[in-house]
Amino acid sequence: MTWTRSALLLTAGVLLGTTAACGGGTRTAGGAFDPNTCQGGTLRILNQKDAGSHLDPARLYTSGGGNIPSLLFRTLTTRNRAGGAEGAKVVPDLATDTGQANADATVWTYHLRDGLKFEDGTPITSQDVKYGIERSFAAELPGGAPYLHDWLVEAEDYQGPYKQPAGIPAIETPDARTIVFHLNSPHGDFPYLATATQFAPVPKAKDTGADYEKHPISSGPYKIDSYQKGKSLTLVRNENWSRQVDGNRLACPDRIEGSYGLDAAVINQRISTGSGEDANAVTTDTDLGPSELAQLDSNPELAKRVAKGGFPYTYYLAFDTTKAPFDNQKVREAFTYAVDRQSVVNAAGGSSLAYPATTFLPNNKSMGYQAFDYFPAGQNGDPAKAKQLLAEAGFPNGITVTLAHRSDNSNGDGPAIATAVQDAYKKAGITVNLQSVDAESYPQTVGNPATQPQVSIQGWGADWPSGGPFLVPIFDGRQYIASGGNFNTAHLNDPAVNAEIDQINKITDPAQAAQRWGALDAELGKKAVDVPLYHSTSLRLFGKNVRNAFVSDWTGVYDLSAVSVK
Amino acid sequence: MRLLWNRFRADRSAVFGAVVAGLLVLLAITAPLLTALEGQDTTSFHNDLVDSARGGVPLGGFGGISPQHWFGVEPQTGRDLFARIAEGAQVSLLVAICATLVEVLLGVAVGLLAGLSGKLVDALLSRVTDIAIAFPVTVFSLALLAIVPETFPRPLLVAVVIGVFGWGGTARITRAQALSLRTRDFVAAARLSGASGWRVARREILPGLAAPVITYGALLLPTNLIAEAGLSFLGVGVRPPTSSWGQMLSSATTWFRSDPVYVLLPAFMVFLTVLSFTLFGEGVRIALDPRSTRLSRKAA
């Protein structure tokens, strides 16, 4: 768990187009879609940035294996390629099932399916999967998520296979098709983690260390034909892959050509116009902005080519609940009542790009969302109730606080949201002084308890669509990090909350766990440990010829392994 | 003086510039009053005036212009645009005027010192002036504005940053003028009668500098206004919720299709201000320039 978590997740989400969803449903631009006749054509990807700063499975930080990476790297498990809540489920990929756990979810066993091959025809073994994971521990290959590092038994000091070829003892491969993981604590969410690219097989013989990203060996439906970092990527079919050995990816286009380094407005304009080859275009990192929504109204053809979704994300006001005045529940409640969520949603881009938040968990079934609004402020806030609570708390003449925000609006926690909060709080007698923090250093400033601002706008998305990664880093008292990189900005350390988290982590049934996470969110909501502001959603265009562009609750965008251009 | 006024008055474009510039200054000074008269303020959100589902585009034609909102409202927030344009006038003009003052004061001081001192000091100061002129001002301002603590008053900081890097031109003109004046007989006379260097500079040279410096200052002002707009456009100028034209232009750029009024307003204000002050400055220059009189007499 490092401070870069949210930044990286966001980056990965945006870059890899894994950002994602509350809407869902199938949206196609033409006639009925038939997976049996969808093959052919060239899909074009128009992106602002390269698909991940490093195309190495060890270095990618993805949710659900990413969008472009998932075309190259198969993992033990993967996200279900389906629309809506179905798409938030984990399904087996290389493995025959999503994992068999022991009684307390500390030992996880996987068996590989038959007939798996790399792009060069060599069979994929459980040793290749183990080696791929061990590479991700190497200091030479940074960037992946820290979970394996934290969860595997006695692996925190492992230096990677280049320095310690003996490997990690906590990962056993009793035979070529079996792999067993020993965890230091119960983690019912392990199947979700096994969707990450670190679980992709890497053939030891082909490993070139830091240069591996120039041509990573494919286990998926496509392989790299040419790759110019930061500029272009061309994928062609991997002849050693077939639908017989992969039940998840349709892989309709024969060829995929990606162009990077384009401007957001240019991408949207090109897909919108759709002339020539742009009719086959999609983007994995560019959403429609608020100023571009009005044209959807005047152009019904274009309105049909919009994927609606959104990577489940929550923006909230964070404060230290151990420090005055926020150690007083009444003050925290007053701050919740006073917020005008309609202003906040408008500042975030309007009702098509955001919806008001009264819960910490976004409105997603897989997260365990339970609707509650303990301090009902209505659409526009309840300044009278807030004033009354402040008076009861000993602030009859109002209160002055400093609100920190990121210096630009591109991450949804910038001056637009801050001024909306400031204006609403004025009506409740809360004077807000804005503190603009440089976009790059904002996470460090907030994540270090020594420099944590009095109040700050925070955003949070989970690495997989379960309540655990959404709630644990924010509310688990043992996740508080005094030295920096802290996400528990409330400085909460409630033994009852910590104990409940431990209990839920033992549950291996996602539906049962989701229900408990939702209940925990509601318990936390009663304490007003933060002020939920809004959940972001997104709209993304696809080309005129693009079919089967359904949106899942996991990623919130269309899936490249499912779309067709024929 | 009367002659000057008559010559200035005869120049129609200069008079137009002066009148418009005067009105803009008046708008800036009376901004809170006018906003109160309109019945609005700069920071209040109006959720009922924007179409949330369509990205927050203002309801009604022409950016939501109505008797209540003279210039319409800002997309997404519904904040009153007249109030924000008027506040922007205050910020933009104040920063531009302060920056110009800083430039003129620094420039005249350095130029005088260089022009009236010995060769060594002159050479040194002239090289410093060269460096000041050649300095990549925008890049350095960006860096400086990014590292100064948030607590420092932003408009003042922007004015000082623009001013501190823009004095080179004034210094050069002052030095040249001082060099030519010091050789005149009346200066020599003052010297021989025992006047100190300071007194010579103050009583004999300085009055002779007035014309070129005032002219140059009047032309610097619009440049500085653009510099402020540029820095705010890049996000390092004044901070929200305070408005400035550059900042408004910056957030308006993506709205040119769905809400053109929002883009045109600040753009037109910057254009009008720069045009009026430039015309005014030109008028002053022509009125003060003895050669232009001869030319115009010949032409007449």
TrEMBL record, chain A:
Cellular compartments per GO CC: ATP-binding cassette (ABC) transporter complex; periplasmic space
UniProt KW keywords: Signal
An example Gene Ontology molecular-function term: peptide transmembrane transporter activity
Family matches, as Pfam families: SBP_bac_5 (PF00496)
Domain of life where this protein originates: Bacteria
Biological-process GO terms, alphabetical: peptide transport
CDD domains: PBP2_clavulanate_OppA2 (cd08506)
Residue ranges annotated for the Solute-binding protein family domain, each copy included: 89-478
Leader sequence residues: 1-23
Gene3D superfamilies per the UniProt record, alphabetical: Dipeptide-binding Protein, Domain 3, Periplasmic binding protein-like II
Protein name in the entry: Extracellular solute-binding protein family 5
TrEMBL record, chain B:
Keywords attached to this entry: Cell membrane, Membrane, Transmembrane, Transmembrane helix, Transport
Domain (ABC transmembrane type-1) ranges: 89-281
Topology relative to the membrane: Multi-pass membrane protein
Compartmental location: Cell membrane
GO BP term, pick one: transmembrane transport
Keyword Metal-binding: no
PANTHER family in the cross-refs: D,D-DIPEPTIDE TRANSPORT SYSTEM PERMEASE PROTEIN DDPC-RELATED, OLIGOPEPTIDE TRANSPORT SYSTEM PERMEASE PROTEIN APPC
Family per record: Belongs to the binding-protein-dependent transport system permease family.
The protein's name: Binding-protein-dependent transporters inner membrane component
Organism: Kutzneria albida DSM 43870
